[in-house]
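ok trying this again, last paste got cut off
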Amino acid sequence: MAWFKDIIGDMLCNINAALRSLSNDENITFLLSGFVKADGDSVYGSHDKVYVFKYKDVKFCVTGKSDKNKLLTAPKTYLF
């Protein structure tokens, strides 16, 4: 899972042109389907994990006002 966060952090902090049209109140969502094993669950990969990043947090990273490590502490996460 750490490798995923590292790749997403690099991608979000280095991408700019593709996200320029978003407004600061929008979000960027990643869905990892069948990727997470929940505590106490015997079936590996039986849950989806969702990461929701605020665009304004991504924009701070892109412009150098923040960094990848700080960005990766910011998303809301959900487990389904």
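PB: full thing came through this time. The mean pLDDT is 82.
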